[in-house]
């Protein structure tokens, strides 16, 4: 038996080597990507879920307000209320295009306008347009496109306003609302050429008083003319009587 064991290799007799090689790592990849069968692709395409279209397109729905706009809504309402007061409490509201100019020129313009009781109001189109769209001044909306300012006055000072704006070329008059009447630039210039209200009233009173005076003179003309003719006829008769008597006396004397 010993001789037989000597002929058997060591690993067959239960002997383990000192160093063993072990395999570490992931398993071998046995599954590879495979294209889906075309019939299955057709089935998946036919059974794909399609969401129903909304009755109202999203573009037609009102835009959701952002949180910042909701926070500023109180301040915006205050500015819109001030714009409403401007159009309600002033007889003249002129809309002008405001181009850039130095602050010194702005101060000088406001000073000369304030001498004629005309105030300068800087407004934003985002504030003015919603107010005008819901009022009787909606025809002024096309004027509020770029940077605008308002020249407001409780009195009608169109002539004085144009005189001051001639020296400020950066401010262009676009239109005005005078006594709830919307006028263009040409209309404001023509309105400024009209005489004052006192002069117009005096001219109207003179024209109205002229007609009764002419009527009265026409009614008195015929009786006065008849009276003058009768007086002249009486005078001629008296002169005729004195004229016949005078020659008789003269002939007797001779």
From TrEMBL:
Signal peptide range in chain numbering: none
Highest rank taxon of the organism: Eukaryota
Keywords for this protein: Mitochondrion, Ribonucleoprotein, Ribosomal protein, Transit peptide
GO cellular component: mitochondrial inner membrane; mitochondrial large ribosomal subunit
Gene3D superfamilies reported in the protein's UniProt record: 3.30.70.1730
InterPro entries for this protein: Ribosomal_uL10, Ribosomal_uL10-like_sf, Ribosomal_uL10_bac_type
Subcellular location: Mitochondrion
Pfam families: Ribosomal_L10 (PF00466)
PANTHER family, A to Z: 39S RIBOSOMAL PROTEIN L10, MITOCHONDRIAL (PTHR11560)
Entry similarity comment: Belongs to the universal ribosomal protein uL10 family.
The name this protein goes by in its record: Large ribosomal subunit protein uL10m
Source organism per UniProt: Rhinopomastus cyanomelas
Species classification: Eukaryota, Metazoa, Chordata, Craniata, Vertebrata
